[in-house]
Amino acid sequence: MTYQEKKSIISLISSLLIFAAYCLYRYPQHPEGVLDSKEMLYYWGSFVLGLTLISIAAHIVISIIFNIVFRITTGEKEPAFADELDKRIDLLAFRNSFAVFIVGFLLAMGSLVIHQPLKMMFIVLIVSGFLSDVTGSLSRLYHYRRGV
């Protein structure tokens, strides 16, 4: 298994664990009561902001740890350059990830149009962001295994 495949698998697993852990941490803090109150908006805004910041920081830390463990176990360095195949695979993964997020964004806005509660928009946005991250990792893994 190549470095890029291992990195994609680690990214996928870490995305799943970070999202699950954060949701389990924040779920008990969900406010009860009026659906569109200021407290509810504060909760969902802080949920999205917190998830974004924690996810970025955790991915950086996990990437550093992965590179250290990879170097210790294999004795190899991280590839210092990306060839045309790596760049193409990254672009394909980004395209797929972006498409999933845009569909989720449109569904979130559509939930407002059909008069769903405001929290539904936030839930759809959060889930589409998560699915976008997973789609990017899976696309990268698929293309490294099967080719372009």
Task: Summarize the entry for a quick read.
The chain is mainly α and 148 residues long. Helices cover 81% and strands 0% of the residues.
Structure commentary:
With 148 residues, the protein is mainly α. The chain has one domain. 81% of the residues lie in helices and 0% in strands. The chain has four helices and no strands. Helix 2 packs parallel to helix 4. The longest helix has 37 residues. The two termini are 17 Å apart.
Total E-strand runs:
0
Provide the succession of SSEs.
HHHH
Can you give the mean pLDDT? Answer: 90
Q: How many DSSP H or I helices?
A: 4
Features:
148 residues; mainly alpha; 4 helices; elongated
Topology summary:
Elements lengths: L2 H24 L11 H37 L9 H30 L4 H29 L2
